[in-house]
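Quick one: sequence plus zinc ion SMILES, need structure tokens.
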Amino acid sequence: MTVVVAAAALRALAEVPDAELGARLLRGVPTNEARSDEELLRHAARATAFGTELAGSTPCGSTAGSLAGSTPAIVEHEGGLDAALLAQYDARHHRIDLFTDSIAFCEQLVDDLGWRHLFPVGSVRAAAVEHERAHHLVTADRSRGLRAALDHEVFRLGRFRRLAYIAGADEVAAHAFAARSLGLTRSPLLLTRAATAAIRTRNDARAASNPKEN
Ligand SMILES: [Zn+2]
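Reply:
Sure thing.
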């Protein structure tokens, strides 16, 4: 497996602070286009604080509160790379799908980029599980806690306040949740950014060498 192009550009991502990576993630999500950098940084910081706190209150392996119910089942598949998928939470079937080929690709990428001190062996799978567990907890709470943490008011009528949802905030929170849960020094958001670019490069190269399949 080779990560041919732009390894230096990927490595340089490590220079970008997690807060800025969070703001960039939000920037890329529809409905956030018009928001200022300052606003996105604020939402990213609040989502990060929320995810970190949530991980502190529902430690790795705990079954969480009665609201969230049991931890979702984990089902492993191949075929994640072609779809550029690492994992996903299926709320309807109460399960976490993990894509083993993508996880192996990311583990290799960690070595290729010299990031092993940031993401120890096995942390990609563990972070994916914790990330999806965070989605499960946020979904079970109907995003009420996250919305309150973001404190982004749409309007106020007397004592009645309506809080908006910031698209992508659950992603930032889930990455922060995984980082805290596993005691990582960097948010897995860093690895996700690099992996997304590397997988795109891989898929583009494959499409170019197999034009008939596309
Ligand atoms: Zn996610």
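Confidence is low (pLDDT under 50) at residues 63-67. The longest helix spans residues 188-209.
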